[in-house]
Amino acid sequence: MSGIHHVTAIAGDPQKNFRFYTRNLGLRLVKKTVNFDDPATYHFCYGDETGRPGSILTFFPWAAAPAGRRGVGEIHQTTFRVPQRSLSYWTQRFLEKGIKFEAIEKRFGESMLAFSDPDGMALALVGVAGAEDEAPWSNGEVPAEHAIHGFQGVTLLLEDRTKTAKILTDVFGFSETAREGCGTRFKAPGDVRGNVVHIYEAKGFLRGSQGRGSVHHIAFRAKDDSEQEAMAQKLISNHGLHPTEQKDRIYFRSIYFREPGGVLFEIATDIPGFAVDEPVATLGRDLKLPSVLEPHRHEIEDVLPKLQRAVS
């Protein structure tokens, strides 16, 4: 199964981030852990009930991070799929919640509602035919019939699409399906979560810089270690790229590389999943730490800001 595994972004205030995605968007916090390389910082993972690949949006909330700058060489927009009939519901909800949004527009024949989170991260809801037939997850903040059904995909803003497109098609199994202006649509097989990547060429445009409100990296799916290794070998032999050694992220295993346009790509295994260290019923409730950090739990908990779950 090809497609997007997860998207990881940079946030500012962790409480605002937690409130926005769980209450305003109705996603589930499926894992509350820390940045393994910076354990004084949370790592939040939002998704559906179990955090299935294709539904996972994760954040490093660094309160002191400067604002990012949108530009070439980055993920320009992250999109979620909802039933087509739900866009009017979300427009009304955004008005009530004071969330900045733009008028509904068409892109590649699909209606989309663009908006941004408290840190300015560019997001959109895309009305997808047949999404209402998928099993939704709702925590009661958003009615199940209008709930978000994982990712639709991402938009890359690049100087040139050629080499990146070859990686999408050769390594990740996407196919080019349409062109619209300076945009090219790539789609993975099947009608699954996170199966769309758009590349927009912006030659000579200012390069983006990472910070609050920007995407840190995007991860693509590998079924298991052997499929991940096969992808790595294609990157080396067909594209002259050399991904990192495999890193154990507890909930998946990852390799990383910088694609030719400058965006950090990850290949993450579907296994073992977010329920490997806690029951599905209590996902995201407790702070989970890797074994190497467990002896320092008290010190870590002392420096992490406390999250208030019951926020109106």
Your description of this structure?
The longest helix is centred in the C-terminal third of the chain and has 15 residues, at 225-239. This protein has 312 residues and is of the alpha+beta class. The protein contains five helices and 16 strands.
Categorize the overall geometry: globular
> Order of strands across the biggest sheet?
2-3-4-1-13-16-15-14
Q: How would you characterize the largest beta sheet? A: 8 strands, mixed
How many E strands? Answer: 16
Total of helices: 5
Helicity level: 10-25%
List the helices and strands and how they pair.
Elements: E1 4-11, H1 14-24, E2 28-35, E3 38-47, E4 56-61, E5 74-83, H2 87-97, E6 105-107, E7 110-116, E8 122-128, E9 151-158, H3 162-170, E10 175-180, E11 183-187, E12 196-201, E13 215-222, H4 225-239, E14 247-248, E15 253-258, E16 264-269, H5 297-303
Parallel strand pairs: 1-4, 5-8, 9-12, 13-16
Antiparallel strand pairs: 1-13, 2-3, 3-4, 5-9, 6-7, 7-8, 10-11, 11-12, 14-15, 15-16
